[in-house]
Amino acid sequence: MKTKKSIYLFMIPGGLLFLVFFAVPTIYGLSLSFTNWDGLSNGFKWVGFSNYVNLFTNDTTFHQAVGNTLKFVVSVVIIQSFFSLVFALILLRNTKVNVFLRTLYFFPTILASVSVAFIWTFIYDPNIGILNAVLKIVGLGHLAHAWIGDPTMVIYSLAMAEIWAHTGQLLIIYLAGLQQIPVEMNEVARIEGASRWQIFWKVTWPLLTPATTIVVAYTTIQSFRAFDLVYAMTNGGPGSSSEILATYIYHQAFQYNHVGYASAVAMIFMVVIAIITMLQFGILRFRKSA
Amino acid sequence: MKKSKIALGVFLVGALTAAVGCGSGTSGSGGNGTGANGGGSSTNSSTKQTITFLHWRGEDVPTFNKIISEFEQKNPNITVQMQVIPSDQYIAQAQANLTGSHGADVFTSFPGAEFTAIAKAGLYTDLSGQAFIQDYNSNLLGSGQQDGKQLAVPYQVVFNMPVYNQDLFSKLGLQPPTDWNGFLQLCQKLKANGDTPIVFAGKVSAGQFFNDMVMNNVPDPKVFTGLLDGSSKLTDSGFLKTFQQLSELAKKGYFQNGPLGTSQDAATAIFAQGKSGMLALGSYQITPVNKDNNSAFKMGLMAPITTDSPDQAKYVGIDTTTFMLGVNAKSQHKAAAEKFIDFLSQPDIAAEYANGTSQMVTVKNVNYTDPALKAMEPELTKALRFQPMYTLTNQQVVDAVTNTVEDVISGTDPTAAAEKGQKAIDQALSQK
């Protein structure tokens, strides 16, 4: 009984922090989503579910933002997870070159998003940018593009910048996962005559499940929440071709003064993230137990 | 298992809070802790007071520092603290600042949607009775007025017309054209000479250049503002003609490669290299271009005339009165704040500001000594139209129009783009 009481006592500080910084803003945001508050005035009207109805039935930009967000997230999760695993496998051995390369790949992670945005805006510039210049030098001038000025290309161009900025972080997670796999297991497999591919597929990959779970879940949530890079590089444009849910919430709340409406988008956003994350955890847990 | 569920729950709520934060943060975030030093509502001149002055022009800071020090010398009991928020973040951050308990005392705002939002929230002090209003050109004060009250005083005059390379024009024997055919011929001659006719700067030019293109195609301001109440549509003939003309310019290759992916800085740099005819921004780019090319060539201002003949053109260019000075209705130091605006309104101080920052001002009897300003002064006497985009008081409608321009430039059929834009406007209006 005494132990139980002390457990509750120790939970108070954490519980209070949870209440103040998580629960209260969430409930406040939910209640705002049923209003037409403009973010400036003292008063607002209770509008019931009309923000939600409007979003689903009338708001084509919201629909486009959902599509763009999914394109962005899927591109980032697949490419970023793949490359971080490949780099981790290549850089697993502790040679001097590998240590240098790990640092090099990790470097973008420490940069502020605004700096990343600045660098990539310059890289992508159709007239003075490095990317088009390099493509022309290597004889691939026909691939030169207005990378963030082309509505069909912009969301993938932004995804590339996001991938560049965060692959180093995931590389570290995979490296940690790989280093936990006992060397003997690979040795035994090799003695048994398994090829490199078979060793990876039958030994390494299953044992990397915990790392993959973290990488995929982290990347998914991180890319869903991507805002600063998109805001700084395109602000949702050209047109609304790179409008994602996070920038749409920002535009509705701070540029159009529709804070109630933006809160409704944020609520839907939260539900989408929650469902996808739970699905991911479910699938990955199933894979672990299989 | 249970633990992982709890951890997942906490993680999810974290993600939720980050998303919801946008919605909930504005209500109480207001003061950023750097506002006026609060304490007491006294406006007694013998009491030491600190007022905050919030604006977006980082490049004006050295000039303002000088002016503020002169003001403080004349008003030893008032200290002015300047806060600068970059223009691309200004609307969101300034509005949050003003709703707080220690928001800025004197603040600037953009005309149009931002001014209307702040006015609607009752955050402006009515300046109608202030003596300093007489220091301004009365015909340049309209953008700060609402319901017969002068809620803010626009301090700057900007010409939102393409800047053109006068030396290149002279070299090729070109003159600013007076009708649409002439404009197309001009662009063709520049292109044939290997120059880029018009340098376009992505999102910024989409709004700025559209103003010039639409000024004579939709000359009646009521048709333009009719977009706000549904009495006119983006698919109406004047707007459609404008989109078709923009599409023609894009299809004929009169913009540089990748116009929508070009930043403002890159566009300025390209123009400053001297291999292009026009920069589709405004007078505010003359100084940066001069800085980039060491004043290597002369520049003028020239809006494209979109009518079939010169006599059909009602306007020859666009102007905007902006950088609107207002006093926070919640300020505890209103008298000191008004004193500061009064000081800025004096012709000699306004001249100091104008010549120090290369910005034309709305104050009367200002002596411009800066050569770029001197050259621009005659523009004020021409038939100019107040920037149509600033007459749209709903930012969502502004964005819908701008997005339509971008869609057209990126190759969408003008009619389809206009229909899409109108749909976005209808949606915006339904959100009232």
Automatic annotation (TrEMBL), chain A:
Name of one Pfam family that matches: BPD_transp_1
SUPFAM superfamilies: MetI-like (SSF161098)
Chief subcellular location: membrane
InterPro entries according to UniProt: ABC_transporter_permease, MetI-like, MetI-like_sf
Keyword Cell membrane: yes
Lineage top rank: taxon: Bacteria
Native organism: Alicyclobacillus dauci
Bilayer disposition of the protein: Multi-pass membrane protein
UniProt name for this protein: Sugar ABC transporter permease
Family according to the record: Belongs to the binding-protein-dependent transport system permease family.
Annotated ABC transmembrane type-1 domain residues: 66-280
Keyword Membrane listed: yes
Localization of this protein: Cell membrane
Keywords: Cell membrane, Membrane, Transmembrane, Transmembrane helix, Transport
PROSITE patterns reported for this sequence: ABC_TM1
Annotated TM spans: 7-28, 72-92, 104-123, 153-178, 199-221, 261-284
TrEMBL record, chain B:
Keywords tagged on the record: Signal
PROSITE patterns: PROKAR_LIPOPROTEIN (PS51257)
Region (Disordered): 27-46
InterPro entries per record: Bact_solute-bd_prot1, SBP
Matches recorded under Gene3D superfamilies: Periplasmic binding protein-like II
Biased composition (Gly residues): 27-41
Signal peptide: 1-18
Pfam families with a match to the protein in the record: SBP_bac_1
Keyword presence, Transmembrane helix: no
Entry protein name: Extracellular solute-binding protein
Species: Alicyclobacillus dauci
